Amino acid sequence: MSKRRVIIFDTTLRDGEQAPGFSMNTDEKIQLALQLERLGVDVMEAGFPISSPGDFEAVTRVAKVIKNSGVAGLCRANEKDISVGWDALQHAVRPRIHTFIATSDIHLQHKLKKTREEALEIAVKAVKFARNLCDDVEFSAEDAMRSDVDYLCQVVEAVIAAGANTVNLPDTVGYKMPFEIDKVISEVINRVPNVDKARISVHCHNDLGLSVANSLMAVNAGASQIECTINGIGERAGNCSLEEVVMGLTVRKDVFDDIEIGVKTNEIYRASKMLTTITGVGVQPNKAIVGKNAFAHEAGIHQDGMLKNRTTYEIMTPESVGYPSTSLVLGKHSGRHAFVQRIKDLGYEIENDAMQSAFDEFKILADKKKEVFDEDIESIIFNQAKDEQF
Ligand code: KIV
Ligand code: ZN
């Protein structure tokens, strides 16, 4: 049986980063982008280039440094946004312009003050303009899941005819139940005549705690791109969590037997840890896949079962998501080898010269404290980044 490839589109650096408490500077974004590339995401959304000079710079630098994943930038549906977006993205090996306009009556009436017809025209014009610049164009119908489905089908058909390669249907406010997502995705796939010329994507927010379930339901209904973020960070209650949706598809291959994805699951923990260290915002201990307790077993009966056979209480191994198996303590007696290895284990890449001065800084710090923590090492790395360009 030939498999259906589901694209993992990571938006940690855009939708994730725009949530309160999660902002990152450009050097931090570059390190995270390199880790996302190692993780094997198909596309990473690096930012919203017109939103600020910092975002423009970050998208430009991510576009230059990333070779194996596509790099997307968000643009509203107008020529100015798209031109600026393209200026930043054009350096990428696989650039993608991601343009959007809302399609729900709530957004059209109260936010945009546009009619459905006007929004449709704006969407088509934007996609055509973007396709003249870039071969890979994604269109998002913001608040799609609260939009009238007949109108939504009309928009999807028109933007595909205008050249959109991917059409994303966001549950912008995390409102829908899984069975309703199934209905919308199925209707769009069954009713839009040219739907096979594009990829249908979902982008689910987590306001009712359903973003992962809704994304999996969408894939089951025929969607072939999932938009998600590391640790599920994002606006309000966040976005669909990459680690949860990816492990859902991986652990339950038996029910998703026609699906394939390109993510290297053993890089998940490192990506999660890097994000928490950079932002200073941890995940709750019971967080699925990456929480401190995700693989801990305390109850006697569970421990007994685990000792007899791990599958009694474990549906995936810690190794499969890259949980570190040993924890060597770094201190004043540690050598350069252990220091360099820890930097690699944490997922960072630094140049040889910067490595030497990082090691010197480590030794000075190690003399002052009993143990040098990962957070200390990360701040040493970003101190080097102030002098060097990654
Ligand atoms: O939540 C949303 O609708 C979005 C779009 C801009 C893709 O983030
Ligand atoms: Zn969003």
Supply the key terms.
390 residues; alpha/beta; 46% helix; binds 3-methyl-2-oxobutanoic acid; binds zinc ion; metal-binding; manganese
Assembly level: single chain
Question: What is the helix fraction of residues, given as a range?
Answer: 40-55%
Strands, total number: 10
Strand coverage percent: 5-15%
* Alpha plus pi helix count: 15
Overall radius of gyration:
22 Å
The unreliable regions are none
**Order of helical and strand elements:** EEHHEHEHEHHEHEHEHEHEHHHHH
> For the largest beta sheet, what order do the strands appear in spatially?
2-3-4-5-6-7-8-9
Give the CA-CA distance, first to last residue. Answer: 43 Å
Biggest sheet details: 8 strands, parallel, barrel
Description of the molecule:
- Homodimer.
- One of its GO terms (cellular component) is cytoplasm.
- It is an enzyme of class 2 (transferase).
- Keywords: Amino-acid biosynthesis, Branched-chain amino acid biosynthesis, Cytoplasm, Leucine biosynthesis, Manganese, Metal-binding, Transferase.
- Residues 6-269 form the Pyruvate carboxyltransferase domain.
- There is one protein chain.
- The two termini are 43 Å apart.
- The mean pLDDT is 94.
- It is built from 15 helices and ten strands.
- The protein is of the alpha/beta class.
- It has helices at residues 12-16, 26-39, 53-65, 79-89, 105-112, 116-133, 149-162, 178-191, 211-221, 242-251, 268-279, 300-308, 336-345, 352-366, 374-387, and strands at residues 4-5, 7-10, 43-47, 70-76, 95-102, 137-142, 166-171, 199-204, 225-228, 259-260.
- Strand 4 (70-76), helix 4 and strand 5 (95-102) form a beta-alpha-beta unit.
- 46% of the residues lie in helices and 13% in strands.
- It has an eight-stranded parallel beta barrel with strand order 2-3-4-5-6-7-8-9, surrounded by eight helices. A two-stranded parallel ribbon has the order 1-10.
- Bound molecules: 3-methyl-2-oxobutanoic acid and zinc ion.
- 3-methyl-2-oxobutanoic acid (KIV) binds next to strand 6 and strand 7.
